[in-house]
């Protein structure tokens, strides 16, 4: 607890920080908010809302509460998760968990009645903001998945509204003033911020696993937790977008290589990521990283382009292990959830955008009124 990471200033270890949210379809934007909140103190407590509360105020979540609790616990900057956290953050909640203040991104979240969920802690001066990660949002990811829907998913006569899904996933002029989609721009600094900067010790047993890890989800978390148990240092190889598309087809991957790198790096069980790892685990890779064991899950594995088994080398060395994580959830299962509930999610996102737009208009009006009052006071003083 309280570990400092590469490129970050050492936080005040005595300050406990509160952060809360829905954390539906947890992505690297959520993780980055946790990273920033962690920098403001020494211990980060994250409250996660229940399915009932989210359905009441926003609409049904994609993931159930148990899945969301586990995903947030897997973020390496999170020290404690509070289940069934209240939707409106109260001073009583901060006191109960001994937190000095609450942190949230620089957007506004509102209740079913359009009330700012942080108005109480803001009024009390116990609120701080962190920067949203541009280019990623749950709404955007839902839109990307809906665009994957083609005739091989469902009959053409019930395809989604292409214009609406295009707007959700691609348009930079979204109705929402805060969470509209924008292009994610990868930087080396962001990778450094997400990296733990720890080199393996000479005595460490190094575990290697590889895959797409697209739409990083609770099934991946369970798999990586178990993979890490086979050694001391876990390296994850991420296949390039081109390679993933070759063996998954359609519009895969949903998230590009840069997004997938940050998603995996944010997981507490991962020590290092190989960007654009070869599909076949080579002898050069085994020797370079001093790999002790190569782990693969229960999903079928396609042969390489030359027809060979991609795990031929580690199998020949007696360094290959296939494991069962106990969680059968796949990226395709998530896409299917979205497709099966397409109309519900489209309705939910439209409702969310309308509430945010109204809140933003009220925010702008109040800011303009305060500016005019300030100007009037200055005139009087002159």
UniProtKB/TrEMBL annotation:
The UniProt record lists the keyword Lipid metabolism: yes
Documented EC number(s): 2.7.7.14
Pathway: Lipid metabolism; Phospholipid metabolism; phosphatidylethanolamine biosynthesis; phosphatidylethanolamine from ethanolamine: step 2/3
Enzyme class: transferase
Entry keywords, A to Z: Lipid biosynthesis, Lipid metabolism, Nucleotidyltransferase, Phospholipid biosynthesis, Phospholipid metabolism, Transferase
Cross-referenced InterPro entries: CCT, Cyt_trans-like, Ect1/PCYT2, Rossmann-like_a/b/a_fold
Domain Cytidyltransferase-like residue range list: 19-142, 208-300
Record's keyword annotation contains Manganese: no
GO cellular component, one term: cytoplasm
Entry's Gene Ontology molecular function annotations: ethanolamine-phosphate cytidylyltransferase activity
GO terms, biological process: phosphatidylethanolamine biosynthetic process
PANTHER family found in the cross-reference section: ETHANOLAMINE-PHOSPHATE CYTIDYLYLTRANSFERASE (PTHR45780)
NCBIfam families associated with the record: cyt_tran_rel
Family membership: Belongs to the cytidylyltransferase family.
Protein name as it appears in the record: ethanolamine-phosphate cytidylyltransferase
């Amino acid at each position: 607890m309280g570990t400092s990471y590469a490129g970050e200033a050492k936080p005040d270890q005595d300050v406990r920080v509160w952060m809360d949210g829905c954390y539906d379809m947890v992505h690297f934007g959520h993780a980055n908010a946790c990273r920033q909140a962690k920098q403001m103190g020494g211990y980060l407590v994250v409250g996660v809302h229940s399915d009932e509360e989210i359905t009441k105020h926003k609409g049904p979540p994609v993931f159930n509460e148990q899945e969301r609790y586990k995903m947030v616990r897997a973020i390496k900057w999170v020290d404690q998760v509070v289940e069934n956290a209240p939707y409106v953050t109260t001073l009583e909640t901060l006191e109960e968990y001994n937190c000095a203040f609450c942190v949230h991104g620089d957007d506004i979240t509102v209740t079913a009645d359009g009330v700012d969920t942080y108005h109480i802690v803001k009024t009390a001066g116990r609120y701080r903001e962190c920067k949203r990660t541009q280019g990623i949002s749950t709404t955007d990811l839902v839109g990307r998945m809906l665009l994957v829907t083609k005739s091989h998913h469902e009959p053409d006569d019930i395809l989604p509204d292409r214009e609406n899904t295009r707007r959700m996933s691609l348009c930079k002029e979204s109705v929402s003033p805060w969470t509209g989609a924008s292009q994610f721009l990868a930087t080396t600094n962001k990778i450094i911020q997400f990296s733990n900067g720890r080199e393996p010790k000479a005595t460490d047993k190094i575990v290697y696993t590889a895959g797409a890890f697209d739409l990083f989800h609770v099934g991946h978390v369970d798999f990586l937790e178990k993979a890490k148990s086979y050694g001391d240092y876990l390296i994850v190889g991420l296949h390039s977008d081109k390679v993933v598309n070759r063996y998954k087809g359609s519009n895969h991957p949903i998230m590009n290589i840069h997004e997938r790198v940050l998603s995996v790096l944010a997981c507490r069980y991962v020590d290092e990521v190989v960007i654009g790892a070869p599909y076949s685990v080579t002898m050069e890779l085994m020797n370079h990283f001093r790999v002790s064991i190569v782990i693969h899950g229960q999903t079928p594995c396609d042969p390489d382009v030359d027809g060979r088994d991609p795990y031929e080398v580690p199998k020949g060395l007696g360094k290959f292990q296939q494991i069962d994580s106990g969680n059968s959830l796949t990226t395709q299962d998530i896409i299917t959830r979205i497709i099966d509930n397409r109309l519900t999610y489209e309705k939910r996102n439209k409702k969310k955008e309308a509430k945010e737009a109204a809140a933003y208009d009220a925010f702008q009006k109040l800011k303009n009124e305060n500016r005019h009052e300030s100007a009037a006071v200055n005139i009087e003083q002159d």
